[in-house]
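Sat 14:20. Reprocessing the chain from the morning session after the first attempt stalled halfway. Input below, unchanged.
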Amino acid sequence: MPRYGYHCQNCGKKFRKFLTYEEYGKVEVHCPYCQSTRLKRLIDRVRFAKSEESRLEALESTFSDPAALAGLEDDPQAMGRMMRMMSREMGEDLGPEFEEVVERLERGQSPEEIEKELPDLGEELGSGLGGMDDIEDF
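Finished this time. Tokens:
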């Protein structure tokens, strides 16, 4: 059953409502907080499926220019953004450890500081951050 998002124009709260396709547009929806019917339908984000080839092409076009990687070793936030973008393009869940490292980088923490605070991170991949020291060797 699909979920439909609504924003109540009376109390200002947002909520979701499960409706069958047959019910949508026929059943009157009420705000669960104030029972108002003055609602605005919210449209959810749209997701596009991409082939592995198109993901790799996007990465290649982004990183084919050496200037795109210039200065990453001196800018943890840019490194974190780049790592997050790469993981999104690859479409794979790299696990909570990866998320932890990326969030710390995005907050401005250096790879060296992260490695000191999380010495066991990436042990199965090698030492330290599992190759984070080699990030500039793309």
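The chain has a mean pLDDT of 79.
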